[in-house]
Design goal:
about 325 residues; alpha/beta; Rossmann fold; eight-stranded mixed beta sheet; three-stranded antiparallel beta sheet; binds S-adenosylmethionine
């Protein structure tokens, strides 16, 4: 069974024009202009991100592929029910999860896969690819387009099945501490005592490696895509040729921060906001942040937010961790 459902509310592709406009107004009127990275993930943005995850320099994806390949058995051992839900928050193209799905099918495990993402294009393509790759199988897939928690609610509400929730990639790294706190609180409230969360986390490493991971030409295309989206959906008149991207590790915030720099003095009009925004030459607008911290700090994040760490799955260089958590009692 393969199906896709669109949830009623949420961010990103299903953000109403008003939500999108408010977020952009708020971000561009800050003293230091800053827009949240989820704005980049419309259908085209998700496609560019998929290409980024295939780059060898983009260590988070390369390391996580290695972890999933080497630890698929350890992950399967978390299942102790006849049938379970495999729920993926912010699945994107689900390329790493497909390794797990193959393994679970080989092991004859009985599960229902629910990828949830705000990008309708990403969810639709993922469901279609799985359907093409697995004709005539028992695989059940329901793709949900919308916000993480809208999706989770529809699955866990009246379901007593064990849930294995995947939150792969660097999405937890991308949250500041208040956002991570409220995200983990909502997640904790959605999970039962037999459920597991497998969450990805990119660990602090040599800043030179962080620099090369976040400065490929594709990263620039990905960040500049945000301007295309604002032009298309809010009637803005950004000229992408007048901006350049750079990402760097900032030791005072402990995050890799990505900026679009205005290469000249310029005024951008946004029709939907009926407003002009002035950019000084070389003014920076932040478009992404990815916090990097140590394993101990990540464990503290789990414990302080009501989780118990069950185990850590590492890549061979210990650059990245997929950590298994349960709700603490
Ligand atoms: C950094 S990407 C990671 C994608 C994938 N998990 C991976 O590891 O390659 C973050 C994903 O989360 C999705 N996303 C961001 N905010 C979301 C939200 N509030 N609800 C659902 N999906 C969201 C984005 O569209 C994007 O596909």
């Amino acid at each position: 069974m393969f199906e896709t459902k669109i949830l009623q509310s949420g961010q990103g592709s299903f953000t109403t024009k008003e939500q999108l406009a408010n977020t952009v107004r708020e971000g561009l009127t800050l003293k230091n202009k800053c827009l949240p990275s989820w704005l980049i993930f419309d259908n085209a943005g998700s496609e560019i991100f998929k290409k980024i995850t295939e780059l060898a320099e983009y260590l988070p994806a390369a390391c996580e592929f290695e972890i999933i390949r080497n630890h698929k058995n350890d992950i399967a051992k978390l299942i102790n029910s006849d049938t379970f839900n495999l729920i993926e928050l912010g699945s994107g193209d689900g390329c790493k999860t497909r390794i797990l799905i193959e393994h679970f099918l080989d092991q004859k495990l009985n599960f229902h896969y629910f990828p949830i993402d705000i990008s309708n294009g990403a969810v639709t393509n993922l469901v279609r690819t799985l359907e093409d790759d697995h004709p005539n199988t028992s695989l059940k897939v329901t793709g949900l387009t919308g916000d993480y928690f809208e999706g989770l609610k529809t699955i866990t509400q009246d379901d007593s099945k064990q849930n294995l929730v995947l939150f792969l990639g660097v999405t937890l790294n991308n949250m500041d501490s208040d956002t991570a706190k409220s995200f983990l609180k909502s997640l904790r409230e959605s999970l039962g005592p037999k459920d597991y969360l497998l969450t990805g986390f990119d660990l602090m490493k040599n800043p030179k490696l962080l620099y090369s991971a976040y400065n490929d030409a594709l990263f620039e295309e990905f960040n500049l895509h945000l301007l295309d989206r604002l032009n298309e959906e809010l009637g803005a008149n950004f000229n992408k040729k007048h901006f350049v991207q750079q990402g760097q590790y900032n030791p005072s915030t402990r995050a890799v921060e990505s900026y679009l720099y205005s290469t000249r003095d310029q005024t951008v009009h946004i029709k939907a906001l009926n407003k002009d925004f002035y950019f000084k030459a070389w003014e920076a607008m932040q478009t992404e942040q990815s916090f990097k911290c140590t394993l101990e700090e990540m464990e503290t994040l789990a414990v302080e937010n009501g989780f118990e760490v069950v185990e850590h799955l590492f890549d061979s260089r210990k650059y990245f961790v997929d950590s298994v958590w349960k709700v603490a009692h």
